[in-house]
Amino acid sequence: MKISAVIIDDEQDARDTLSGLMATYAPDVELLGQAENVNEGLELIIKTQPDIVFLDVEMPGSTGFDLLQAFKHPTFEVIFTTAHSNYALQAIKLSAIDFLLKPIDSSELVEAVNKAADVINKEQLNKKLETFIANISNKEAQELKIVIPSAKGFKVSVLKDVLYLQADRNYTHIYFTDGSQELASKSLKEFDDMMSDKGFFRAHQSFLINMNHVIGFTKGKNSSVKLLHDVEIELARSKKAEFLDRFGS
To answer: Taking the complete model, does pTM exceed 0.85, yes or no?
Structure first.
């Protein structure tokens, strides 16, 4: 299936490199145009209506995020490109939006393009982008939203509503404060990487807990953490000191 794309990046070398990689490794992608700033990028998207927008994060004057917020209901898939591994990547990861770190690896480019090509449901695409916009605008960690992928699609949830997560091989059971649960098609390690600095703690190899919902701690040979709704989570011996330090005990 032929899909179309545009590149928005202030660096000519970066645009040339990406377009060259696309021609070699993603020949099914038709490049409709390039832009070097947000204003030109906005005009290019409106004019060409691409399927994919390769969008640089850091540009002089305005950022790629500023451009994205100009579209209330985007009809394109976004793949961010950036040379910086910074705070913005957390918002991108939580929102399940793809990104490519510069220098761009050809295999990662192909993977990102293939994933974009699989996005047929525009409603799902809009939800992911809306979640990202909310995250990049929000400074309160527990108010951030997370996209939870599953076999049936995905669910958008607020981090503060997550009680704890439990590993199940390459899947993760996510339990919420309202008593509901979801089975996510991501490993616990992936969630830990995204959420460990957002108020979550890896209490055990199999459990990631929301520290904001801890209501008690049981000492002893088999220590445990008590969460809302009388949920008890085993605390690994190797994690006890770190937990007490985080909990302020």
So the answer is: no
